[in-house]
Amino acid sequence: MKMIRFSTAGESHGEALIALVSGLPAGIPVDLEFVNRELWRRQQGYGRGGRMKIETDKAHVLSGVRHGKTIGSPIAIEIVNRDWKNWEEKLPVEVGDPALHQAVASPRPGHADLAGALKFNFPDARYVLERASARESTARVAAGAFARLMLRTLGIEVASHVVRVGRVALDRAATWEEIAAIASKDEIVLGCVDEPTEARMKEEVEEAARTGDTVGGVFEVVAHCVPAGLGSYANWDERLDGQLAEAVMSVQAVKAVEIGRGMEAAESFGSRVHDPINYAAEDNGKPTRFTRPQNNAGGVEGGVSNGEDIIVRGYLKPISTLRKPLASVRFDTREATSASYERSDICVVPAAGVIGEAMVALTIARLAQEKFGGDSALELQRNFLGYIQQMRSY
Fold first, then answer.
1. DSSP, res 193
2. Distance between CA 34 and CA 272 in Å, rounded?
3. Strands 157-165, 168-169: parallel, antiparallel or unpaired by DSSP?
4. Mind listing the pLDDT tens digit for each residue in 99-130?
5. pLDDT digit string, tens, across residues 243-281
């Protein structure tokens, strides 16, 4: 069975990041301007650090695309790290000069530093930081952009917005139109659909900046126009909600994932959680379908998409690198000291939402390819439309 797969390579301060995507059908139109726009969006948001002033991420496609369309072979994408020129002698591929090595001598609480160094028997956390860094997510966003280009041929769109920064939360539902509009903005502050709420979120980031702290939050990813039937209840590892949770939980700094109104549902009675099922009669040529008044399930029931928008929330912890470092211990002497510090962000919630979009898109694209199949975009679309027609006549 042809399956969409992706992997990434590269270090935070290495020469480049690489994304490798395989399994996409041939004939998908490739809009590199869209791919680069997604990379730009990942770099935006109030509270980003100095690294974003150095990098201007651009996708350089090495293989798998010719004459503006996918050709069915693996797609290799390179994103050059402009900061490499400052690290070439510190992190050489060959032996180089050990005296130039810039050690991360004391692990940062909340980061992979300590666990990674213990796991791989490193004397400091430099190599852990290089790969565990969220800089890796740049390659994920590039891969996700290609998945989104495939989903677009099926009429499926993915977008995100920020619903909480620190103590400030959006207190109303957002429409799909509001969420989708954020991606087209030329200036992205904190990615919230409500300007007054976003202004208060900005104040939360400013307070963290003043005190040498960092702040987390919650982003929400919405997949729009996903048909019923993706995923399965038949086996535990085929469940759509489980696969979405794994994908979003894998994003750096995400510590919890919610599908629909899962957390609210846990403290409510069933009569207030489960949406009644209605049936929408055909209206002005639009297809008939089963509907839900509130979509509390977030578009997934029993591990299967139910035709409503799929809603996934990622809960992001504050970034681990603090300008006022927490207590730590030196790797070499085990003596008490402060945690290492390198330039860092204060708030990355909007950027995490863009990464979350990529992971959701890659998951849905993979499941769509598994269900509908097709070596070409035309075959995939034909199978998809046949399935939609089947549901209309159900």
1. S
2. 41
3. antiparallel
4. 999 999 999 999 999 999 999 999 999 999 99
5. 999 999 999 999 999 999 999 989 999 998 999 998 877
Q: Specify whether domain 5-260+297-392 bears CATH 3.60.150.10.
A: yes
Quote the CA–CA distance of 356 and 360 in Å, as a whole number. 6
Phi, psi of 14 (to 5 degrees): -80, -175
Contact between residue 353 and residue 193 where contact means Cβ atoms under 8 Å apart: no
Cα–Cα distance, 70 to 64 (Å, whole number):
6
Using DSSP's 3-state secondary structure scheme, residue 352 falls into helix
Q: For the chain, what are the domain ranges?
A: 5-260+297-392
CB 73 within 8 A of CB 63: yes
Alpha-helical segments (H) within the chain: 32-42, 51-54, 113-120, 126-132, 137-152, 176-182, 195-210, 240-249, 262-265, 270-273, 349-372, 377-392
Q: What is the rounded CA–CA span in Å between residue 188 and residue 353?
A: 12
Residues in the chain: 394
The candidate with the shortest Cα–Cα distance to 379, out of 225, 226, 155, 153, is: 153
Phi and psi at residue 65, to the nearest 5°: -135, 130
Residue type (1 letter), 327: A
Residue 240: half-sphere exposure toward Cβ, Cα within 13 Å? 33
pTM of the model: 0.95
